[in-house]
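Appendix B, Record 12. Input sequence as logged:
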Amino acid sequence: MTTSQPGPAAAGGTAVDTLLDPAFLEGVQQRPMLEVRGLRRRAEQSEVDLSYTRRLLQGRLDIVRRELQRRAEHDGRSLVDLLPEILSEKGRGPAHGLGRHQTVQPGDPVALEHWVNSLAPGVDLSDVGELPDDQLETAARALAEGERGLSERRRGVQQVMDALAGELGRRYRDGEADVAQLLAAEGRH
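Logged structural output:
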């Protein structure tokens, strides 16, 4: 009997699990303004972390897929020669993000990179050109699956951010938020 090792945790881990739990937004209309703003900052941090992780993952996936294509087409150029083409935007379709302006940095880039690397355990992506075809194909499938799951969770976090921003906007629009009082309260924190 063989036991398979558990795969990596879902993208964003428990922080994103918490945000995606419907209970996270329960009663948000009755929560104090500073608390709602804090919830939005938590969601924003997770979205930035997921966005950064997706970029790392997509770069690796693009390289692995291009190496598989290079081999299939018997392209004599080296992978290094192809890097400018691989990393350029010309080969990609339209962006799927919402074009959000990011005001925070990824929380722990090393941990995020570790998560991406854990998607294809046993496959060293530091020298893609030397990997056997079967390992490259395994890595491509694992990275693509990881990207799909990550993107789905990121969309969920963006919906939470939108709900929180909507609640904050409603409060300002309806006169429930006092900007001067809010700024004074934030200055104390």
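Residues 32-92+106-187 form one domain.
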